[in-house]
## 1
Amino acid sequence: MPFFETHEFPIYFENLEIVREEALRAGIPFWQIILSCALFNYRDPTLADLRYGVYTTLAYGGQALAYYTYWTHDDASFREGPIDKYGARTPMFKVIQQLNLEMQALGPWLNKLTSTRVAHWPEAPIGARLLDGEGIVAEVSGGSVVVGEFESQDGEPWVMVANTDRSASAFITLRLRTPYKQIAEVSRSSGQLRPIARDQGVNAAFGYEDGMVVRFWLAPADGRLMRLY
């Protein structure tokens, strides 16, 4: 997942669409390799760049992540990987360490889920799908997001929402079409299910006749994994 000095990879989501479909068809997991250093005309990735790669991949049903490269090679203009060419940790090491800790919390849940639907709002990138309201997520507002829907082995629905804006937070409102009346999120620090708080303890979910509305903040390039029950 590279970002260039002058532009961005235009078919990133188109590639994710293809890989997701083929992985589901074959019944195998897929993984994403995220660029963690600069080289050639690829620019230095930021924390938001890496979070973007991680959480968009998870929304598409990816079940493994790797970073290229760990050691900064002393050739081909490689620079500022997690471990520099002298063996010392760079600031990128801390970024990846934090993301890996989050994945350790989310992974045990995500690896038991099957991706059932993925869509973007309010615009669909090249090769991607626009949210059509036919899934669990009937409507979404408040930001630019990719929405992944999942199913557990017991048939319970799960939803992941990732903010595709790498510079601005978003106050997201989801209108869910579901008979379930409760929703919880996976804490990225403990890995435990917890109520979704809109802001310091304010309830985020409200039920109505055929579903619920959930409101919450997403930091730039951030994501939430939620279970309906």
## 2
Amino acid sequence: MDFLKKISGYLKTRTAVIAVAILLLGGLGYYYKNLLVVATVNGSPISRWSVLSQLEASSGKSVLDSIITKKLIEDEASSKNVSVSAEDIDGEIKIIEERLKEQGGTLEAALKNENMTMEKLKEQITINKAIQKLVADKIAVSDEDVENYLKQIGGDIPKSVPEAEFKSQIKAQLQNQKFSTEAKTLIDSLRAQANIKYFVEY
């Protein structure tokens, strides 16, 4: 009889534990439902996995390449003791805000329009600044470069724009051109030298 009582007590305890576990799982499932279900249509759920799988199929390669490139740049910057400070990032954000303000816009509106968060913007600025520092010696533009460019295009300096300002704009344009070229060269070189192993083919 004592043995039967013990068994009965054990079964009751086990049943209670299972019931509590089911309730907890059910509660967690409801609380974190957005991790599993992203929407319902007439009561029929659409799983997060179905969305992610389609996104992976359509954009997986470009996203993976972007992540790989970011990692390669971070590693190269680290090996060259190149760092991007909070001041660097804040300074660039301030420049962006000023440009948008001149155009009658705001950074908040621009981020919303691009479906981008401030965190993502800072991440992009960090990578961009790291590349700039890595290729800094190759993107310098001298006053002579500006003069040669003006001779090549045979253009006159507009009377509506001060000469110094116009030449400053040309200098920035030439720097951007050099940066685009050198950034691509750097990334291509890093990818060629890296040991990249793909486990999923897109």
## 3
Amino acid sequence: MTEIIIPIKSLKLAKQRLTPVLTPSERTALVLAMLEDLLTTVSLLDHGKVWIVASDDAVFDVARKHGACPVREPEATGYNEAVLLGLAATRTQSNVAVLPGDIPLATASEIAALIAPAPSDKPHIRLAAARDLQGTNGLFMSKKGLVRPAFGANSFSLYKQASQKAGVHPQILEAPGLALDIDTSADLHDLALHVRGGATHGFFNKSRGSFCGHPIERGAA
């Protein structure tokens, strides 16, 4: 089965681009709610261990609630470094997948398609793009080390190039739920319009539809 790595930024630093519409406590609440919903969806699937790489006890409380394994960062040195910490925790020969923590609309079927065990002994890589087709919101490797972590600007293109250099033709997944990660106020508005339940929906309900004086429409319950 596939082991899953989910890195979570320090809550003090998370979602800085949402500062115009969210207070620090709201940003923290949103991060934890989205992680809660992602782990709830993952729990519906067959998978190996889930590793949460983070530096905040509040994140680990959510992780343990869902049976995930905490990996504490000694210091926050970056997203790709956090992925490397997670990879170091996984078994040597395990299939491995990396997911961001801010994809609460990802469906069980989308995640299942990403983490499905490799169909053969040949090296296998799957990629799911962010909706801007620049970032990467899902990475699967039939064994760790096929490509180095390269999350960030233009990572989707970089992963495709790295896969080909490794002699692997990557499988590209079409997954609209996986594609929406929450970085900007526009992303937040889209999330509010489409979320239909769970902790993230509860977050919007508690907000009463407005953040820092900015109205945000909510989807139906």
